[in-house]
Write a structure and sequence with these properties.
This protein is mainly alpha-helical. 61% of the residues lie in helices and 0% in strands.
C-alpha cells in the first residue's frame, strides 16, 4: 500500500475538486426531490419506491470511494506543513463553526431542560431534567455538551490565529481533540436509536456525515498540533470531501423543505452545526491548497517535495552542532558505537546491515543539507557563543601604571655600614657574586715575583 500512496502524478487536486462539484450538483437536487415527494415526515421512511433511491445510494458509494482512492494515489497532495500567515476566509469559517457549536448547545438545552411555569418546584424540575437526559442519550448527551464548549474555545483560538497571522492554535494540542470528541459523542448517540438505519435515510446520511467528519477532525487535530506525518495528509481530502457531501445532503434539502412549508422529518430538524461542518471542512481543504494565504498558491509544496524527519527524532535549530559533535564522538569510540546501534535489529547478512546504516546516514545528511543557510549560520553563531562563554576569562594586569609608579620613586643609596645586620652573613655572600677588579700589568709582575 505504501508503494501505491502518492504514486500517480496524473491525479491533480483540482481534478478532485471538479469531481466533488459534479457529484454535489447531481446528488443535491435528487435528495431535495426525495425529501419533498418520497419521504414520510412522521417516521422518515420512503413512502413510494423510486429509481432515484438506488441511484442516489450507488452514486454516493462510488464517489465516496473515488474521493479516497484519488486522494490516496495523488502525488499532488499538499504537505502537512500548511502555509502560515493571515487567512481571513479560514478565520471567518472558524467563526461559523463556533456559531454551529453554540447552536448545538442551545439545542441540547431545549431538549433536556423542562419548561416551568409560575408554580416552579425544584424537585419536579430535577426529576424531569434527569428523565429528559436519560431519554436522549444520558452521559453521551452531557459529554456532547461539554466537548462542544471546549471546541468553541479551540475554534476561537483557531479563528484569531488566522485573522492575526499567528499560529497560536498549535500550542493547544490537547484542546485540538475537542472537535473530534464532539463528533464521536454525536455519532454514538445516533447509533443508539432503535430504528433501521437503511430505511430512515435522514438518519443514515447523518451517521455517514459524522463518521467522515470524525476521521477528518482526527487528521485535522494531528496537523494542527504538529503531530503530523505525510502518511495521513491524504485523509484531509478523502475524508473531508466525503463529509462535505453528506453534510450537504442533511442541511440544504432541509432548508429547501422548510422554505416550502414542509414539516421536517421528526427528530431530524435543520441544524446549523451540520452546515458549519460543511462550510469549515471545505474551507480548510481549499486553504490547505494555499487559497487565502499570501502567495500561498505559488509557494505551495507537496508531500513528495519536502523531507520530514522521523517522528522519533526531534532536532531543534540550536542543537545541530551538538548533534554533529555527538555523532563524531560516537564514531570515534567503538564502545559507544556499539551502544548507539544496539537498538537496531540484528541482520543475518552483514551487507544488509551496512546498507541500512548507509541509508540512515544518507537520510541524516540530506536532512542537514536541506536546512536553510540562515538557520545553519544562526546555529553556528550560537555554538561559537557557547564555546566562548565556557572559556575562562583571563585577568589582565595593568603593569604599565605600576612600572611608572616604581620609576617615579626616588632611589635611596644605602651605605654598607648602614645596612641591617641580617643582610650580612652567608646568605648575602651566596646571593651576591664576587666583584672582579681590574689589575694592571705592573701588579701582575709584582705578584709573580712574590
Amino acid at each position: 500500500m505504501n508503494k501505491l500512496k502518492g504514486s500517480s502524478s496524473a491525479i491533480k487536486m483540482k481534478y478532485l475538486l471538479f469531481v466533488f462539484a459534479t457529484v454535489f450538483l447531481v446528488a443535491l437536487p435528487t435528495r431535495v426531490y426525495q425529501l419533498l415527494a418520497l419521504v414520510n415526515t412522521q417516521n422518515g421512511f420512503f413512502e413510494n419506491g423510486d429509481i432515484t433511491i438506488p441511484v442516489l445510494y450507488a452514486v454516493l458509494f462510488v464517489f465516496v470511494l473515488l474521493f479516497m482512492m484519488l486522494s490516496f494515489l495523488s502525488k499532488e497532495v499538499p504537505s502537512p506543513k500548511l502555509p502560515t500567515g493571515k487567512n481571513p476566509v479560514l478565520g471567518a469559517t472558524s467563526i461559523v463553526m463556533i456559531a454551529g457549536l453554540v447552536w448545538d448547545i442551545i439545542a441540547i438545552e431545549n431538549l433536556v431542560v423542562p419548561k416551568t411555569g409560575m408554580d416552579f418546584n425544584m424537585g419536579i424540575f430535577t426529576s424531569l431534567l434527569k428523565a429528559n437526559v436519560q431519554d436522549n442519550g444520558g452521559v453521551l448527551l452531557i459529554l456532547q455538551f461539554v466537548f462542544a464548549i471546549f471546541a468553541i474555545f479551540y475554534f476561537l483560538v483557531f479563528a484569531i490565529s488566522h485573522l492575526n497571522g499567528k499560529g497560536s492554535y498549535k500550542e493547544f494540542k490537547l484542546l485540538a481533540l475537542s472537535p473530534l470528541c464532539w463528533c464521536i459523542t454525536m455519532l454514538v448517540s445516533r447509533l443508539m436509536k432503535a430504528v433501521s438505519f437503511i430505511t430512515v435515510s435522514e438518519l443514515l446520511f447523518e451517521i455517514f456525515m459524522l463518521v467522515f467528519a470524525m476521521l477528518f477532525f482526527l487528521t485535522f487535530a494531528r496537523i494542527s498540533s504538529g503531530v503530523f506525518t505525510e502518511d495521513s495528509m491524504w485523509g484531509i481530502y478523502g475524508y473531508g470531501l466525503s463529509a462535505c457531501l453528506f453534510a450537504g445532503l442533511v442541511t440544504i434539502p432541509r432548508l429547501v423543505a422548510a422554505f416550502s412549508g414542509l414539516e421536517p422529518v421528526e427528530g431530524h430538524d435543520f441544524s446549523l452545526a451540520h452546515l458549519a461542518i460543511l462550510v469549515f471542512i471545505f474551507s480548510y481543504i481549499v486553504a490547505s491548497l494555499g487559497v487565502g494565504f499570501k502567495d500561498g498558491i505559488s509557494n505551495r509544496k507537496t508531500v513528495t517535495e519536502i523531507d520530514l524527519p522521523d517522528e522519533d527524532i526531534i532536532i531543534s535549530k540550536g542543537s545541530v552542532g551538538a548533534f554533529i559533535a555527538e555523532v563524531d564522538e560516537i564514531s570515534e569510540d567503538e564502545d559507544n558505537a556499539e551502544e548507539f546501534f544496539a537498538e537496531e535489529p540484528a541482520y543475518a547478512d552483514e551487507d544488509l546491515r551496512e546498507a541500512v546504516s548507509d541509508k540512515r546516514a544518507e537520510k541524516t545528511r540530506n536532512f542537514f543539507e536541506g536546512l536553510d543557510e540562515a538557520s545553519v549560520e544562526e546555529s553556528a553563531e550560537e555554538i561559537v557563543a557557547e564555546e566562548i562563554a565556557e572559556e575562562p576569562v583571563a585577568e589582565v594586569i595593568e603593569e604599565a601604571p605600576v612600572i611608572e609608579e616604581i620609576a617615579e620613586e626616588p632611589v635611596q643609596v644605602i651605605e654598607e655600614d648602614e645596612m641591617p645586620k641580617k643582610f650580612f652573613g652567608k646568605r648575602k655572600e651566596e646571593s651576591e657574586p664576587e666583584v672582579i677588579k681590574p689589575i694592571s700589568l705592573a701588579d701582575m709582575r709584582k705578584n709573580k715575583d712574590k
